[in-house]
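Replying to the earlier thread about multi-chain prediction with a worked example.

Input:
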Amino acid sequence: MKRVIETSHAIALAVKLARVKVIPMYPITPQTHIVERLAEFINNGTLDAKMIHVESEHSAISALQGALLSNVRAFTATSSQGLALMFEILQIISGMRLPAVMVIANRALSAPINIWNDHSDAFAVRDQGWMQIFAETAEEALDSVLMAYKLAESKEVQIPIMVNIDGYSLSHVYEPVDIPSQTLVDSFLPKFKLEDYLDINNPKTFGPIGFPDSYMYFKEAQHKAMKNAEKRIKEINREFKKKFKRSYGNGLVEEYKIEDAETVFVCLGSICGTAREAVDQLRVKGKKAGLLKLRYIRPWPSKSIRKALNKAEKIAVFDRAFSFGSEAPLYTELKATLQDKQINSYVVGLGGRDVTIEHFKKAYRMCSKNKNGWLY
Amino acid sequence: MNKKMKITKGAVIKEPGSTVKYKTGSWRTFRPVIDYEKCIRCGLCWSQCPDMAIEKKGNKFVINYDYCKGCGICAENCPVKAIKMVREEK
Amino acid sequence: MIKEIVIYGRGGQGAVTSSYVLAKAFFYEGFYSQAFPSFGVERTGAPVEAYVRFSKKPINLRQHVYKADYAIVLDSSLIEAANVKEKLKRNASVFINSAKKRKYFGKDIKEITTDITSISLKIIGKPFVNISILGLFATTKLVTMESLRKAIYEMLPENLAKLNYAAAMEIYKNVVG
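Result:
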């Protein structure tokens, strides 16, 4: 059924449809609407789950870890400073190979205090062993949560995942969303079952010490599982299409008017929508622009990127985060992936600065002169 | 960027009391008006205004409409009901 | 063709809710729609803008609205304070809540003013103007009162929906006759 709802509401519905059992929660703007909805569902009896009101984000993520270890599907969400406070536990969860799903309503980091959208929170935790997906629309946010559970819980993967949605710019948007039925979701998402969990009748040890003679092997296994995820993401995308009649590119990346494009924009998240509009407007003027939307940054889809950008002459990468003293993070990785291409870097939309069609048109012009820049 | 805004190191605001530059009077939907015939000069409104928008001038309490946001706390708490909230019309 | 609306209000007046109701109503009318807020200071009284887009085709564009086809002003003092004119296209239409019988714009802007606060006070019993003013917007016939009714009932608890819809209807009838 298609309804006009808020992205945060769409995510809450996805969590409900996934039959999540435990929701440890600490509020922070702009993530709060998600859990407010979940609290409503629990209160009106439409979601059979336990919400744990914890005293900090550090506790929220710790309770998420505990819940997963007791063999139930769990959920939490946070933003910015909240994610920063969770940092310590992030690699504990990925190292213990727990299939956690967490939504990040992306928000800039302080100081100066800023409650608006950029990707500095997501990129700050990029290397903690979590998969990271970015959604463009409310419907994609809902779908991504369902796909995330299936992906994270796949035996050959078993890695936690963050579903990123742009704070305010997507989290607070109302737009049409096709809400799938419970029956359909049940046929897509299997019952939650860990191979190893806390069970008094079958005691096991979790989270032991990894001495120097073993630690490296566990870390390499995490990396291999992440690479397995690439294949699994494509499979899940195909299965999703069969069941729900929609999908997102090959699952890892989505191409828009790229076949004959000379200049290709590369971006993440909700600004891809505005980029599509910019591509259309440039094409009306005879300028061959295209868009490559990255859905995942971890696993980094290098094969898909190389395939998609094979013919592109110029590439303009849009970052909404920065590595101070170095360069914009997506730009760095794209250069490593495509070493023989002209790639230019554009830093946009930090701290909620609006990203407009004009930014893309300006980048298009600068790219033709092989110039990088911060676009205000 | 607001042209008047200075980009200082670490976002330090060096000038004390700079908030007075940001006038919030336009936020008002209702304006408090003091009836000085009824006012007993108790100063309750002056002490309770969350925006310190009521000033003591001589033996009189005067509302500074540049900053008053029209919250109505003064009117609510006035012991002799000397303050009325009147709709703003512009 | 995408059409764009800016709703001007003050924190607590419900401009954002108003934009959400309108997006739902446009959807019932057969349009694709999108609504989102532009928050500044999240405090009662601070100026707030909310945006609505509607189109016969799916909407990709996500930037703020910079040149609107329509503006809805919940508090006429914002016309100056928020510089409403700057964000209007030529020949834009503006729907204003004001008790004053005056013109706020020049000839190139269509404006329609009603004392929404008084009607809301009479029907709802509180100066809630964010939903009732949509009755004034419905006089454009871009959305029917029926679509608006469905959207209002979806967004608000039933008792409030009933009163707000009644106020919107009265405002609509006052104009349309």
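The helical segments of chain B are 44-48, 73-77.

Feel free to reuse this layout for your own posts.
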